[in-house]
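Task: encode each sequence below as structure tokens.

Item 1
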Amino acid sequence: MPASPHASPTGATASATGRWLRTTRPAHPDPDLHVVCFPPAGAASGSFAALRRAAGPTTLCSLALLPGRESRVAEQEPWDLDRMADHLAEAVSARLRETRAPCVLLGHSMGGLLAYEVTARLVTAGERRLLRLVVAGSEAPSGAAGHRLDVTDPVGVLRELSGAPQEVFDHPELLRMAAATLEADLRMIRRYRFGGARIGIPLTVLLGDRDPIVGAAAAAGWAELADRGSSVRVLAGDHFFLDPHYPELLAEWRREARAAGSRS
């Protein structure tokens, strides 16, 4: 007998899902929106703490857990972005079977590449709960391998982007770990090769108006990848510009989810 489309994963599938995704359960038993988040290079799921605070009782948040950080800090072997996307797509697919809520995939910086590759896999597999792909401060996949960040100076990159709290710089061991994770991620991006896949869901590109790394030119290639339309929005802030904008973004995604539900 085929499994229920909303059944929870069990056994090995549940274990794999938990390894790659952490889901924060909303207070409401029937969430109306599901946001799956993919962090920037060198960062962990905590980079979306402001999103979780703004999410409200009816929003489900799933956070990608990547090798080399958090509960997976011991996994320091080199990773391939495509292989990582394969695992994440399986975990997200399993998580989506647990709820009927429309899903937004949100990727910040390197996370935008991961979110795109996961989206392409899910669309190919026929996943119907995907509402929108949102990439923030993320260079288009066609040019990502040539990004200008200095792989050999991860501490300098952390300082340039203000990508770590001051306490990291004040503690040599924390700084060493943060720099090692960032360097591994930057090298993974350099090895990435864009395959040209298009996606069959709407795409939003978010940019910070003072982002020193990703501007309109670097993000222009995203428009070629969406079969159902794309849009670009410039918001106030530098490379880490998302936090103050989550309330308005979540409100927009909820309206879109309600509209999608009324059409289905």
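Item 2
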Amino acid sequence: MEKNLIILLSCCLLHFASAQLRVGFYSSTCPRAETIIRQLVQKRFGTDRSITAALLRMHFHDCFVRGCDASILIDSTKSTSSEKDAGPNLTVRGYELIDEIKKALEAACPSTVSCADIITVATRDAVDLAGGSHYKVPTGRRDGLVSDSAEVNLPGPSLSVPEALPFFRAKGLTLNDMVTLLGAHTVGVAHCGFFQDRLSNFQGTGKPDQTMNPALAARLLRTCGTASRPLNRDPTVFLDQNTSFTFDNQFYNQLRSKKGILQIDQQLALDRSSAPIVSSFASNPNAFQQNFASAMIKMANIQVLGGKAGEIRKNCRVFNPKSRRGF
């Protein structure tokens, strides 16, 4: 009985925090907040179009651990290992852009805009710049006070659809949301180590994964080889082989042609529960864009902190001194 009451109370608190988010949250306290974020993302996008994929990955990895609270941004110390240094997050990048945005916002309106909102808005803007939908983002998140590498447990690239789905359902997301959010791979890359087994010795068979287009497998094998490498020397390939920097639905068309690079991506087109969604998005680009905007807004509401919870960090990489925790 007591356990059920705690669960119910937690759900109510989470709903209350999400309800506190609203479009234009900073309209009176920092009117230029979203303009400043947009300008700096646009500046970076002008020289590095891969920033869209970087921010999408950062946003996803942040929200799926302790909720969208910017805990992924915290640097480790001599005594603590933060989320940033957990294995799945070693390929996350773009932190310096968040630092640049935070510095500009602190100059304009000190201790006002959270790092969590910066990630959310910057990701939206990067998707828009790459050709995706421009959707309105409710803001008002606050930054978390905990970042622990031991808490990082994310769905891996070799899972089946039934294995991956519980990770999403645990965060209040549906099968449709999962298929939609994995569509972010339309602008992503993957290190060879994440799919190398599919190219020549899939699950110990001595043969390539039969669910991968043979010509693609042969081409990737030439790029990746069979030897494993340290992450910093492991080659990367585009997950969307055609429109690699454009946020569109071509990723789903490639899945239907057995050209998914990651096993979980290809399984989306093969599993009977998710295949109809893949087909729908492959044939209807507007459906994908609309669903993606909705799924991103939904994901950005996961376990958010509002009101007096958490803090507004002065520096996204470190927690505020305890004397400043009220901000």
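Check on item 2: The chain has a mean pLDDT of 93. The two ends are 36 Å apart (CA to CA).
End of task.
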